[in-house]
Specification:
The structure is a single chain. The chain is α/β, with parallel strands linked by helices. It has a single domain, classed as 3-Layer(aba) Sandwich (Rossmann fold), CATH 3.40.50.300. It is built from nine helices and five strands; from the N terminus they run βαβαααβαβαααβα. Helix 1 crosses helix 9 and helix 6 packs across helix 7. The protein is globular and about 40 Å long. The model has no long low-confidence stretch (mean pLDDT 90).
Length: 190
Amino acid sequence: MLNIVIFGAPGSGKGTQSEMIVNKFGLDHISTGDVLRSEIKAGTELGKTAKGLIDNGQLIPDDLMVSILAAKLDTLTASKGVIFDGFPRTIAQAEALKKLLNDRGQDVTAMIELDVPEEELMKRLLKRGEESGRADDNEETIKKRLVVYNQQTAPLKEWYKNEGKHCYINGLGELPRIFGDIAAAIESKI
């Protein structure tokens, strides 16, 4: 099984690159953001809880995200592997994902880090907010999300380096070059 964690700040291109990885490597895509937005749209209890946290730029509690991922992962019985988009976001979540996969005889193959400067992230997210109408893509919430990312999520780089899974990718530039770098990084870990 080929299990990829795509990692980067909000607006770094994780969703765009995930689609390209899915197409090239035949993986299933688990986007925690998509799962949560679906729950919010459906008006479920999880959706209501998630909406309150997301609207304030906060992360979803680990136990809740791990339960959602475990249920989703268990539906993918004929999968070649999964790209995890938006998870893990903390070291505790990375440890939980490792256990979740190990319990199924699997592991993370590679963690792809898309590195993009904050000024560019802000531009991309504000533009996305204008185009998509996403409520969380406004300047105040973006700033909160970047603070949370830098405090809670960025330490994952070191954790995955220690696991031998980290692959640094310069996320600025043309999409084909970025994707070529990602594909080469994944192939080097297979």
